[in-house]
Amino acid sequence: MPNQLFMTKPHSVLLEELRGEHRLRRVLGPVQLSSLGVGAIIGTGIFVLVGIAAHDRTGPALMLSFVAAGVTCIFAALCYAEFASMVPVAGSAYTYAYATLGELFAWIIGWDLILEYAVASSTVAHGWSHYFQDLLVFFNVRLPHVVTNAPFDFDPTSGRLALTGTWFDLPAIFIAALVTVILVKGIKESASFNAAIVILKVAIVFFVIGLGAHYVNPANWRPFAPFGLTGLSLFGHTLMGKTGPAGEPVGMLAGAAIVFFAYIGFDAVSTHAEEARNPSRDVPIGIMVSLMLCTVLYIAMAAVLTGMVPYSRINIDAPVSDAFRQVGLPWAQLLVSVGAVAGITSVLLVMMLSQPRIFLAMARDGLLPPGFFAAVHERFRTPWKSTILTGACVATMAAFLPLRILAELVNIGTLLAFVIVCAAVLIMRRIHPEVHRPFRVPFSPITPVLGILCCLILMFSLPAENWLRLAVWLVVGLTIYFTYGRKHSRLAASQKFNQPVTEPAPASVDLRTRG
Question: CA–CA distance from 512 to each of 34, 362, 364, 371 (Å)?
C-alpha cells in the first residue's frame, strides 16, 4: 500500500462522484456563475477595505495595489479555470490538490479554505454592519453603542489591541443568520437572489464612479505614493520599503496584500462547478468575466475615492459613503449606503454558499464526519447542516473580532490556496498529460510559475503575526486530520481492502432520508 499521506485521488473517481444520488443539482449557467463571481468580488473590498488600505498602507497608490493584486489573481484564475473544467465537482482547490499532491496536501488546502471562506464571511458581515448602521442614521435610528461593534480593535499606531467599549456586533449576527436561512432553502433561489443584488450594486458602483469623478481634486493624488511602492517583508523583517508605527510593512505591495481579499470571489465560482449545467465551458467563463470586470471597476473606484478625499481623512469603516459626506452630498451618501448594504449582502451570500461545499467534498472522502457534513436536505438538496454550522461560526467571529485582524487572516490563507492550485497545474500536466482539458492555461508553465511567485510576494508583504496565526490554524487542522481524517479516509480504506473507492461510505448511503 502506498504512503497514505501522498496517495492521490484518481481522475476517474472524481468524475464518478458526479453520478451519485447525493450529488448537487445542476442549475447554474454562465450568467449565474458570472454573477456569483461578481457578487463575491464587488462588496467588502470596494466598499470597506479600500479605506484600510489607502489610509494605513498606500495612499493614492491604492490604484496600483489593485493592479498588482488583479494581475496575481489572473494567473491563479487561469489555473483554477483549467481544473474546474477538467474536474467539475464540488471542493475547489481541495479537490484539485487531492488529485495531484495527495491526501495530506488536500487536507491542508481544505482546512485552509475553511479559514478563507468562514473568516472572509465574518469580515464581510462586519463591513455590512457598519454600512447598515450608517444607513440607519439617515432615519434618525441609532443602535445602543454596546451592540454596534466588536469588543476590541487593533490599534495600528501602537500595535496593540484596544477595548472599544462595546459588547458585540448585533447587526453582523443578524445578517449572518438571515443569509443562513436563505442558503438552506436552495442554490437556485440563492443564485437568483444574488443576481438581483448584483445588478443593483454594479449600478451603484457606476454611479459612484460617474458622480465622484466630478469631485476629484488632483491635488489629493499628491504625493501619489506617500508610503512607497514596495512593502515587501520576510516574516516581519522589512526587505524593501518602509515600515508602519507597529513595524508592519507599508507601501503599494503591502496595500495589494490587504486588498487582495477583494478578489477571492472568482475562487468561489469554482466551488460550484458541480452545480453548473456545462462546467467545462461555463465555469472558466464565469471566473474570467467576473475577475476582469471587477478589476477595472476597482481601479476606477480607487482613483475616485483617493481623488475625492485626502487619503489621511478616508473613513476606515465606511469609506465610500463618508467620502460623499465630506464633499457635501448627503443624498449620495444615502444612495451609496443602500448600494453597499445590498452589495455586501451578496458577497456574504456567496462566501457562505461556498463554505459548506468544501465541507461536503471533505466529508465525501471521509476526512470529516459524513453523517453531518455530507448530509444533503431531502427537499432542498443543500448541505443544510454544515450551512447552519457555518452561519453560527460566522456570526460569532463577526460579533467579537475586529475588521483588521479578520481581513489579514483571510488574505494569507487565500494566497496559500492559490499557490497550491498553481503548483497543482504543473504537477497534473506532468503526471497526467493524457487527461482531457476543455480549458488549458495559456503559456504554461510560465503562467503557473508567475502565479506562485506573485502570491508568495504578497504573502510576505503581510504583517508577521499573520504567519503565526496561519501556523496555529494549520496545527489545529493537522491534529484533526491525524486523529480523525486519516483513520476514516475512504481512499485509504479502498486501497487497504482492494475495494473500489467509488463505493459510497455507509454514512452517506442514507443522505437522502436523513435530511
Answer: 30, 18, 14, 11
* Tens of pLDDT, residues 205-244: 898 899 999 999 999 999 999 998 888 777 667 777 788 7
The DSSP output letter for 28 is: B
Contact (CB, 8 A) for 5 and 241? no
- For residue 192, count other CB atoms closer than 10 A to its CB: 13
Phi, psi of 242 (to 5 degrees): -95, 170
Q: What is the pLDDT of residues 259-296, one digit of tens each?
A: 887 787 677 677 676 677 777 778 888 888 888 888 88
Report which residue type is found at 201.
K
490 Cβ contact list (under 8 Å, min separation 6): 364, 365, 366, 501, 505
Q: What is the DSSP string of 221-242?
A: G-SS-TT-S--EEETTEEEESE
User: Percentage of residues in the chain with pLDDT exceeding 90?
Assistant: 20
SS3 letters for 149-180? CCCEEEECCCCEEEECCCCCEHHHHHHHHHHH
Q: Which of 291, 275, 258 is nearest to 78 (CA)?
A: 291
Distance CA 122, CA 401 (A): 9
83, 424 Cβ separation under 8 angstroms? yes
C-alpha cell at 261: 481579499
Quote the pTM value: 0.78
Size (the chain), residues: 515
Report domain extents, the chain: 4-153+169-514
Q: State whether residue 2 is helix, strand or coil.
A: coil
**Cα–Cα dist 431/448, whole Å:** 16
Nearest to 400 by CA among 57, 129, 85: 129
Helices (H), 318-445: 319-326, 330-364, 370-373, 384-400, 403-431
CA 49 to chain centre: 13
Contact yes or no for 38/293 (Cβ under 8 A): yes
- Give the number of other CB atoms < 10 A from CB of residue 48: 29
Query: Whole-angstrom Cα distance, residue 19 to residue 172?
Result: 39
Residue showing cell 508568495:
456
Q: Rounded to 10 degrees, what is the CA torsion of 422, 425, 427, 429? A: -150
Give the three-state DSSP class for 258: helix
CATH number of the domain located at residue range(s) 4-153+169-514 in this protein? 1.20.1740.10
**How far is the C-alpha of 364 from the C-alpha of 514, rounded, in Å?**
16
175 φ/ψ angles, rounded to the nearest 5 degrees: -70, -35
User: Residue 411, SS3?
Assistant: helix
Measure CA of the first residue to CA of the last residue in the chain; give whole Å: 36
